[in-house]
Write a structure and sequence with these properties.
The complex is a heterodimer of chains A (423) and B (290). Chain A is α/β, with parallel strands linked by helices and 423 residues long. Chain A has 2 domains: 39-158 and 298-372, Response regulator (Rossmann fold, 3-Layer(aba) Sandwich), CATH 3.40.50; 161-286 and 378-405, Response regulator (Rossmann fold), CATH 3.40.50.2300. Chain A has 16 helices and 15 strands. Chain A has a 7-stranded mixed β-sheet with strand order 7-6-8-9-10-14-15, sandwiched between helices. In chain A, a hairpin with a 6-residue loop joins strand 12 and strand 13. Chain A starts with 7 loop residues before the first helix and ends in a 7-residue tail after the last helix. The N and C termini of chain B lie far apart (46 Å). Chain B is mostly helical. Chain B is built from 11 helices and 2 strands, in the order H-H-H-H-E-E-H-H-H-H-H-H-H. Chain B has helices spanning 5-33, 40-56, 61-84, 92-114, 140-162, 164-174, 176-181, 186-211, 218-233, 238-258, 263-277, and strands at residues 130-133, 136-139. A two-stranded antiparallel sheet of chain B has the order 1-2. The longest helix of chain B is centred in the N-terminal third of the chain and has 29 residues, at 5-33. Classes of the chains: A alpha/beta (423), B mainly alpha (290). At the A-B interface, helix 1, helix 2, strand 7, helix 7 and helix 8 of A face helix 1, helix 4, strand 2, helix 7 and helix 9 of B.
């Protein structure tokens, strides 16, 4: 071939280089100068690309709202607060790199964020080694506050145990005891599966089949074609993010949603809004909702927060916005309560302290023994088209499950979680 | 277990058709200009988003199915003329880096324009239902996809083998300098060739947006299998890309059915085997590359 030539080996080298570049991601291209003396830096690691990008964005918006509120009150320890954001790309390895960069280079005094459980675990470990507090805003796997618990790690969102135990009994009562599971094949899915197996055993339900699907699966048809012949009472769909959308959308295309009920431990507004109305069905666990007295209670501050958020971004806040807000707000509260950025003092201030939030009725706290935030969960049915006044209002909240009823007890957790504070 | 295999074979075929169409676009561009187009998936996503936007503004799905790929081609030609042309005579690594950068920029741009949350895109009412096949319902839209892709590939084959322009394109792949010396404007060949590849990507994008989900990453998720398809099928061959796509589609869906844990590596295993046994790919024409 004349002119431009491309040999196979060059192409393969090139493709490999491209793939490697894709794996390592883009460096943050605005260099930062490190910590200015008058600013408190908080590192936010979220997936801004990939299957969980929409969730990362919502958590960041929530965190930003908390930073703005604190800065308006005069900051923390008399200093303004700034967020340094990094894209962890739902990749545990990249998450660790970004956590190190945020602490070593940007001089962040604490970290928060994550959506994928695998990244929550890796950053929890990295933050422990770096000696900074980390609040896992949105990674659910039990191990974060279970066998991999750390003195410096706290978690806002519910554990997978809470999610499965909040929904399992109702699913069995409503639809029946033969369950079919489609489970994402990583830490989050594995611990959800363990949770449902525990519920199933207690209720005498059976799991007729379970398929583990890789994160980032686009075509769910090979899994879905097996569902109807197995004749389950209910199809439990456990993947989240883009995978949830792909799975539910295709389950609808295959006519499965019309024949058997669907549900699961967790449904997110970002995902439901991305589904066409005909695929919006099912009974699901809900972690937070922007409407309703059973979630928000009746307080003007909460309603105003929701209205301000909606005005700023055009869509209502989601559970992810709440996670981001609460993680950031509690971190800043911890620093101000500890009157210091000393990590141990911050952790001691946070653990066990009961607090109220304008966004959730009742009191909440990070349990001292495992650092899991104890707060209720809700269940909801999907209202495909929203309400006439509000097309985003797609959850019809049915029930509220108190935290103590759905999470493992302190005694059960003590068997797996051993927390060693630095002496 | 066997009763699931029939729908799975068909699903594999559909996946394969997607990979083939994307791979042919990649292959066309690679063959003529030596460019590894890492931005191909971004054009696919763009096709989906443009169709979504058209439909949201009240046009019919059928209109969007044709117009969105054409609009994607317009963007593609702009990119090709302004950025790719200067790199055609250089080492392929330059265009690889350029297009890789473009794909990152495109993903962020889509996020800014259409949001990082996916957008809902349904098939038109005529194609929304299913065809009952014994114990299960098979989505009409999937059948439609196979039809559209088959027609597109058929037309492309006719174009390349039966028209004067198509013959010139193929001749240029063999020897660009000679065909230029014989008086053919190679710049127009480059442009039309690129446009053809992008049209196929845009078309696949509209269909993928309905069948899968539409978010800024939709296209990039289909890009890696398409690269593997090119390698398996053999560079420089239209039929190779079709065969490679179908093989990979089947490999993925059948491993998913029987050994789900292996579904991610199935296509790479297939690629490794093909490279060991027949390094130029199943239908690759020896001598074209180097």
């Amino acid at each position: 071939m004349q002119g431009p030539s491309l040999r196979r080996d060059r192409f393969i080298q090139g493709a490999a280089a491209g793939a490697a570049a894709a794996a390592f991601g883009v460096p943050a291209f605005i260099p930062r100068r490190g910590e200015a003396a008058d600013v408190i830096m908080i590192g936010v690691t979220e997936p801004y690309s990939g299957v969980y990008a929409a969730y990362g964005e919502s958590e960041t918006r929530g965190a930003q709202a908390a930073v703005d509120a604190w800065n308006k009150k005069g900051g923390v320890l008399g200093r303004q607060v700034k967020m340094a954001k990094e894209d962890e790309q739902s990749d545990p390895g990249i998450g660790v790199q970004k956590a190190r960069k945020l602490v070593n280079q940007d001089k962040c005094v604490a970290l928060m964020g994550t959506v994928s459980s695998a990244v929550s675990l890796s950053i929890s470990g990295a933050a422990n080694a770096l000696g900074v507090p980390f609040i896992d805003s949105g990674g659910h796997t039990d191990d974060v506050t279970g066998k991999d618990c750390k003195w410096n790690t706290f978690r806002v969102c519910h554990s997978t145990w809470m999610e499965t135990h909040a929904t399992g009994a109702t699913l069995a009562k409503k639809f029946g005891k033969k369950w079919y599971l489609i489970t994402p094949d990583y830490a989050f899915g594995h611990s959800l599966s363990a949770g449902y197996r525990d519920v199933a055993q207690k209720l005498g339900a059976t799991i007729v089949h379970e398929d583990l699907t890789p994160l980032g699966t686009t075509d769910f048809s090979p899994y879905l074609t097996k569902v109807l012949p197995a004749k389950p009472d209910v199809l439990l769909i456990l993947p989240q993010g883009d995978d949830f959308i792909n799975c539910v959308k295709q389950a609808n295309q295959f006519g499965i949603l019309k024949r058997i009920p669907a549900g699961g431990p967790q449904v997110e507004l970002e995902a439901v809004w991305a589904l066409p109305p005909e695929a919006r069905v099912g009974f699901w666990g809900v972690e937070w909702y922007y409407k309703g007295a059973s979630v928000l209670g009746n307080n003007a501050a909460g309603a105003k927060w929701v209205a301000d958020y909606r005005k700023k971004y055009g869509t209502p806040p989601t559970a992810r916005s709440f996670f981001g807000y609460t993680a950031m707000d509690r971190l800043l509260w911890g620093i101000s309560e500890a009157k210091s950025t000393d990590p141990v003092k911050i952790a001691r201030a946070l653990e066990g302290t009961h607090f109220t939030s304008p966004l959730v009725a009742g009191t909440l706290f990070f349990r001292k023994e495992d650092h899991q935030m104890m707060w209720p969960m809700w269940t909801a049915e999907i209202r495909a088209k929203g309400t006439p006044e509000d097309k985003y209002d797609v959850f019809n909240i049915i029930d509220r499950e108190p935290a103590l009823a759905i999470e493992q007890t302190v005694a059960e957790k003590a068997k797996v979680c051993k927390m060693n504070y630095p002496s | 277990m066997l009763e699931h295999a029939a729908p799975e074979l068909f699903n594999g075929l559909i996946l394969g058709a997607f990979y083939a169409v994307v791979a042919i676009g990649l292959s066309l561009i690679m063959n003529l200009t030596g460019t590894v187009n890492m931005a191909h998936g971004s054009f696919l996503t763009l096709g989906g988003y443009l169709a979504f936007t058209l439909v949201a503004h009240g046009t019919s799905f059928w209109f969007a199915l044709i117009i969105a790929p054409l609009l994607t081609v317009a963007v593609g030609i702009l990119v090709e003329r302004t950025m790719m042309v200067p790199l055609y005579r250089r080492d392929p690594v330059y265009s690889l880096l350029l297009t890789f950068g473009l794909s990152l920029i495109a993903e962020e741009a889509y996020r800014l324009i259409w949001g990082s949350r996916g957008v809902p895109f349904s098939p038109p009412a005529d194609l929304a239902g299913g065809v009952t096949l014994g114990f299960m319902q098979f989505p009409t839209f999937r059948l439609f996809i196979v039809g559209v892709l088959a027609v597109a590939l058929g037309l492309l084959a006719l174009f390349l083998s039966r028209t004067r322009f198509g013959l010139r394109l193929r001749a240029a792949v063999q020897d660009t300098e000679m065909i230029a010396a014989l008086g053919t404007n190679t710049q127009i060949l480059y442009m039309v060739n690129f446009a053809l590849g992008i049209f196929l990507a845009g078309l696949a994008g509209v269909l993928a947006a309905v069948m899968f989900q539409l978010s800024p990453t939709t296209g990039n998720q289909l890009l890696m299998p398409a690269f593997v398809t090119v390698i398996v099928g053999g560079m420089g061959s239209l039929y190779g890309a079709i065969a490679g796509g179908v093989l990979i589609g089947l490999a993925i869906s059948l491993t998913t059915l029987y050994i789900p844990a292996a579904s991610e590596v199935a296509m790479y295993v297939l690629m490794a085997i093909v490279l060991l046994v027949r390094p130029r790919g199943l239908f690759g024409e020896e001598g074209i590359f180097g």
